[in-house]
Amino acid sequence: MENHKFIRNYCSRNHESEDSTEWTEEIEYLDESGSVIFSGKGIRSVEPGVDDHVMVGGIKKPLLNASAVAKMVEVVKRWRWGPDMETQLDKLQFVPNMTHIAQALKIIEDADASLSLFRWAKRQSWYVPNDDCYITLFDRLNSSRDFDEIQLVFEEMVRDSGENWTSSFSAYNRVIQYLAKAEKLEVAFCCFKKIQESGCKLDTQSYNSLIILFLNKGLPYKAFEIYENMEKACCSLDASTYDLMIPSLAKSGRLDAAMKLFQEMKEKNLRPSFAIFVSLVDSMGKAGRLDTSMKVYMEMQGFGLRPSGAMYVSLIESFVKAGKLETALRLWDEMKKAGFRPNYGLYTIIS
């Protein structure tokens, strides 16, 4: 028996091929009632609303999402990217929708392949922006450490947001957190500004990740700027960010801002860490704000925390320099009772 080679092609009434291997007979496609919905040579193109179901006996049933997604994933995994993949996707014998795309992206682990499928979907007439698609893409691109592509996809999402669709804040938060964790300071801050301009809100975790990024980069002033934006958005710092923010502000001379956060932290029933007390006692003392320094020192003991030798030294030095020798000597005695031996420098300034 001869093997006949058949090439499966789409065709229309207006484009008929002369290739001898094509199916040249006129084919009529009927609906359930028997009416002709199309006639032409070869296999017709799929049409939305016409090819979104299958017939089981005499019963019209929708095409199973699982079957559609599995076929789409099969095509993408085989070709991965480029014209060949897109040609095969164009030949799918059903009309895809954004549910199919979102589910397929969750299955496809390769970042380049996921991006190729998404780009193809964006060029289709049935495409609508989808938050789940963007979230999955950001997850894939973060896993592959492709932060340049994250920025490009983010900019696409911002453009989509202006076209009768508003992204939920989940996708935006993904971008900020991934970029901040990767220490992409300029890009993260640029994306933050664009999100603000779009009117979308970020969550506490995203603000905290930006604050930590700026603090780690030695930019407490920018960190406090993020905090001020955070306040306006009715978000609050978490305990770990207070632990970073307060000492950083205190050491940089932003003492009022540091004390404001210190009071705010206590009002939220969060327990200040030893590092917070050390930074405030030391910074306030060196700035000559001795009453505040001593108040924080006493408050620390009220929390059951013991002063360190370095804290005693800092306090005694501050009081001596201010001419408060009586208080300095009292602290000297406390220091020795606590088991700390004053160093030579401290003996020098006391004597």
Automatic annotation (TrEMBL):
Residues 171-333 form the PROP1-like PPR domain. It holds the Pfam family PPR_long. PPR repeats lie at residues 168-202, 203-237, 238-272, 273-307, 308-342. The keyword Glycoprotein does not apply. It comes from the Eukaryota. The keyword Repeat applies. Keywords: Repeat. Belongs to the PPR family. P subfamily. NCBIfam families: PPR. This is Pentatricopeptide repeat-containing protein. It comes from Forsythia ovata.
